[in-house]
């Protein structure tokens, strides 16, 4: 076996990215992908959800030298544009600084760019139509659906939330594994452009919060918006109950009346695009000996409500790359440290993403939430080095997610204390703040 070769499973976003990092260390990389080459074949409708790119993901793209090309594909979003039931809108900024924005990017376009960049290194080969069906971690071989059997020294699983490699690691270790279904699903829809113009403001992530469900829309470079409807899978108002044109019409007339005229293909798209299911995955550890490691959704699939799924996966690659440098290619120590130091961050962002779903679909339109955000911005201005809102720490810093989670819990105690004194969030008791900060 070639000691200088690393095998990756999955050519989604984190696979090619990690491959490029490894090629920079001089490794040859073989990536096995179950799908056909998306650069040659169209993606099926309803599976091209836009992604939110922020600083953690940007860091990785800069380190592998592709950010200048990717920059032409991104659309800045300054905040959440909230659409209430009456059709009124209000913008809730993500942060107070001009650079505190997140970026909308097409998953497919980013994936294509990463695969091409990987192949351009001359050290990375991508084998398409290779669906992993068995991984023997003790005898170090992988078997694919086409009966191609390969040997490996080191394998990294970037094969998503349904990872076969993860199943093998779990069966060979005492790893703790939990898949937590959200009970909610999603369906993709599209607001097309009109006369080559955006139909709604492209400088924001649009949200129609409706309590137990919501619709969101992210802008695209072609002046369209990719929309995603998140709803319970079962129940009174759910994907289970919407089965024909009349029911689709009634749903949107009742809860999203201002969207009806924006989506001319609404009925066809709703009834024909697939309904995806949402779940969080908790796993510890993420590795097996010095032979196998999981990154991205294979290790810590999260629900998409903090815009951090891709960013967290890309940060995995950044962290792993640093450990490769620190531990001088000792894969046993690299993998062990990666699990020991980083699993807690995967769990923390999974928890925060679930919490953010409730915030987005329900809290954003409530008076208490608006007062809390007002108070957070005021505290950040008065105590700039000591108070950074949790959302800002997640999206605009590279602090470990576990640290952000713990600080956020303390912040909520402070905010609740201050809101008890002034529910409007307009005044700040500095004595209370100083006590909490200490």
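^ Assign residues to that structure.
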């Amino acid at each position: 076996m070639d000691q200088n070769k690393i095998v990756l499973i999955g050519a989604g976003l984190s696979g090619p990215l990690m491959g490029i990092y490894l090629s920079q260390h001089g490794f040859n990389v073989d990536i096995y992908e179950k799908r056909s080459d998306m650069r040659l074949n169209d993606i099926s409708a309803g599976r091209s959800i836009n992604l939110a790119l922020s600083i953690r993901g940007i860091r990785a793209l800069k380190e592998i030298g592709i950010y200048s090309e990717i920059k032409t594909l991104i659309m800045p979003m300054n905040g959440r544009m909230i659409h209430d039931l009456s059709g009124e809108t209000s913008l809730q900024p993500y942060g107070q600084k001009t650079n505190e924005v997140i970026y909308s990017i097409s998953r497919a376009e980013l994936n294509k760019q990463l695969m091409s960049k990987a192949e351009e290194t001359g050290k990375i080969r991508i084998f398409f139509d290779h669906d992993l069906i068995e991984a023997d971690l003790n005898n170090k071989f992988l078997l694919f659906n086409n009966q191609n059997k390969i040997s490996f020294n080191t394998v990294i699983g970037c094969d998503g939330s349904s990872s076969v490699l993860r199943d093998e690691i779990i069966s060979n270790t005492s790893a703790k594994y939990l898949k937590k279904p959200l009970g909610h699903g999603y369906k993709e829809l599209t607001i097309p452009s009109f006369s080559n113009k955006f139909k709604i403001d492209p400088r924001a992530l649009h949200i129609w919060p409706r309590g137990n469900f919501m619709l969101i829309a992210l802008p695209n470079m072609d002046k369209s918006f990719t929309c995603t409807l998140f709803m319970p899978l079962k129940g009174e108002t759910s994907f289970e109950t919407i089965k024909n044109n009349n029911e689709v019409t009634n749903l949107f007339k009742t809860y999203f009346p201002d969207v009806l005229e924006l989506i001319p293909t609404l009925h066809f798209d709703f009834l024909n695009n697939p309904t995806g299911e949402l779940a969080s995955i908790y796993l510890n550890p993420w590795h097996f000996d010095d032979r196998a490691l999981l990154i991205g959704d294979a290790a810590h699939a999260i629900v998409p409500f903090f815009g951090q799924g891709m960013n967290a996966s890309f940060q995995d690659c950044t962290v792993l790359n640093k450990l490769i440098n620190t531990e001088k290619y000792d894969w046993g120590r690299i993998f062990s440290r990666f699990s020991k130091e980083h699993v807690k961050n995967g769990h923390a962002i999974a928890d925060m993403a679930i919490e953010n779903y409730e915030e987005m679909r329900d809290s954003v339109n409530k008076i208490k939430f608006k007062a809390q955000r007002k108070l957070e911005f005021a505290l950040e201005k008065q105590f700039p080095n000591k108070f950074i809102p949790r959302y800002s720490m997640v999206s605009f810093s590279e602090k470990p997610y576990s640290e952000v989670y713990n600080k956020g819990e303390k912040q909520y105690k402070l905010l609740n204390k201050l809101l008890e004194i002034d529910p409007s969030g307009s005044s700040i008791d500095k004595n209370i703040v100083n006590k909490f900060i200490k």
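The two ends are 56 Å apart (CA to CA).
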